[in-house]
Amino acid sequence: MINNNGHLISSAEATVSVSNRGLAYGDAIFETIKTLDGKPWALSRHMRRAVNSAAREKIVLPSEELVRESIATLLKVESHPTGLLRVSFDATGNWAAVHLAYTEPVSAAKVGTHPVALVMDGVPVKSYPYNHRLEILEQARTNGFDEALVTSSDGKICEGSVTNVLLKIAGRWCTPPLSDGVLAGVMRALVIENCDVMVRSIAVSEVEDIESAFLLSSLRIAQPIASIDGRELSQSHAFRDEIEAMALRTSVG
Alpha helix locations (H) across the chain? Predict the structure, then answer.
């Protein structure tokens, strides 16, 4: 079942593609939210980002009360111990929410630098069409990696194709600023606020200086990076435990 415009309907009637993890058709904004035992993580932060994205894209959102009520109903009908909740709002006023089972990654990720530097124009919006990011991810996987490290034409490290990055350089944890073309990730914000992480521009030339690293996202939370372009990194298990405990403490409810 899918919640479409506040009503539970079958997937055949929906304006989203369930087979493609709930992606919408046409121009739209979206939020992807982890659920645990039927509880969405950091829902208020995701709703706040959706409001900001909608204002930039001139998309009219339904009332937050209706969205929250619809999500709660969907999570009861489509229950999963660990889930992927995706809520999409399109330019025509239609919106939908899907809840799918999610399998968390159990191993560290192999990351490769994307070969083409991207022209970044301000802070990205989490929006459809999303093909350009999925194509970068698919190319990385074709080359034997789990994720791509995206860089800008200004010579800066930005993020992953579908993740933010947290990097340890010269003994200090840091993440690129939004102004370098970085998506305002919810988990990124929580880590900055709670885990003594520096926000600074990181030059592409510093890739070789990265000692340890994580991919950050609302689903992965903090997935360790095993290697970048084949160079192995050290693993920061204690810091990962700290991030995951913080995410549980600050996100659920």
Answer: 43-57, 64-77, 131-142, 186-194, 237-251
